[in-house]
User: Which sequence fits this backbone?
């Protein structure tokens, strides 16, 4: 048992086997269909979610974990850990970070550190996995936090939403006012700036968006000795596999994974969305 417990929210979408192997505790966000609330990963799988999306007339919404759930999780972990490091999705798109901070203030006898990943999905997962691996080797909280801060300048993610109206409707698209009317019809490349989602480049088609994202990756991947890359998809595994295969061939030094936009993020991006995230190690 390591001294430092690692906690993440569900939107890092780290598979359960990996969470078990690395001792990662997951706190789920919720997806809400009408009057039914599902904790993602626990009450609804990604497959069930996308199937339900097709049947439903009223689109789902999402909500952050309750303060009580965070407090309960922290109380439990505080029994046998001196420190708890919590890695959340970006504070600019969800209240999860703030709720974790408020819950941490309710727990005594343990140092709780809340880290804003400023991103989400398996890219947030890069931070979580690194922290968990360090915790397992006995690293202390200060060392792990320093590593997480250092990683921020090496982590990138660009993505496109198949249907921008979901992001717009949920109020999670910033800086698009100037061309929002036309933009709902097109596939701009999106990214995070100051914790928020903003358009990076306005392109018309998915093909062009993916080509742009690959070009942005190339700037880093061609000079990297080691790089982790994740191709993220919203219920579009074939699309992701094609991109991943191409990247594996082009960058033999890279670890290329496929990951997904689960229920909460899928609610905001829609089915068919894709993204690429990477973390340059050297
Ligand atoms: C909540 O209700 O608190 C959750 C809100 C989640 C908003 C998600 C917006 C899309 C994020 C895309 C992340 C792409 C990462 C590569």
Assistant:
């Amino acid at each position: 048992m390591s001294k430092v417990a690692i906690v993440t929210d569900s939107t890092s979408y780290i598979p359960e086997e990996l969470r078990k192997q690395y001792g990662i505790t997951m706190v789920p966000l919720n997806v809400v269909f009408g009057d039914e609330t599902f904790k993602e990963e626990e009450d609804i799988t990604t497959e069930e979610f996308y199937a339900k999306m097709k049947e439903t007339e009223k689109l789902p919404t999402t909500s952050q974990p309750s303060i009580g759930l965070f407090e309960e999780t922290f109380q439990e972990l505080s029994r046998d850990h001196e420190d708890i490091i919590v890695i959340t999705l970006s504070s600019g798109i969800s209240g999860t970070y703030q709720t974790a901070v408020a819950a941490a203030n309710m727990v005594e006898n343990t140092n709780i550190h809340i880290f804003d990943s400023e991103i989400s999905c398996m890219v947030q997962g890069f931070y979580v996995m690194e922290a968990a691996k360090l915790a397992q080797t006995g690293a202390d909280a200060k060392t792990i936090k320093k590593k997480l801060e250092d990683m921020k300048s090496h982590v990138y993610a660009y993505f496109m939403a198949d249907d921008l109206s979901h992001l717009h409707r949920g109020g999670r698209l910033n800086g698009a006012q100037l061309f929002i009317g036309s933009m709902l019809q097109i596939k701009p490349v999106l990214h995070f700036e100051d914790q928020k989602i903003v358009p990076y480049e306005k392109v018309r088609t998915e093909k062009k968006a993916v080509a742009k994202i690959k070009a942005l990756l190339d700037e880093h991947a061609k000079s990297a000795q080691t790089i982790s890359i994740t191709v993220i998809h919203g219920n579009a595994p074939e699309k992701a596999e094609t991109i991943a295969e191409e990247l594996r061939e082009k960058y033999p030094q890279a670890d290329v994974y496929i990951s997904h936009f689960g229920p909460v993020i899928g609610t905001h991006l829609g089915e068919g969305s894709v993204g690429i995230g990477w973390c340059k190690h050297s």
